Amino acid sequence: AEIAKSNAAALRRQNELQEKALIAEHAFEGKRAELEAELEELEAKNATLSDNSCGLDAAHIGLLNTAAGTAGH
Predict the structure, then answer these.
(1) DSSP letter for each residue of 7-51
(2) Quick check: 73 pLDDT over 70?
(3) Could you tell me which residues come within 8 angstroms of residue 1 by beta carbon, excluding any fewer than 6 positions away?
């Protein structure tokens, strides 16, 4: 009888731990999805900033060329 009680208690404990593990796994997957979405957003912003930087560099070169052309005349 004691062994049966002990086994039942161990089984309940195992079920509790499995439930906690599932909850933790679910929370982890949710956080992971959230962080992946944030990463995609940051990568998109970074790409936009890189594009803007290239545009600014081209505009700066154009201004320098204009200034050089004006100074040369």
Answers:
(1) HHHHHHHHHHHHHHHHHHHHHHHHHHHHHHHHHHHHHHHHHHHHH
(2) no
(3) none
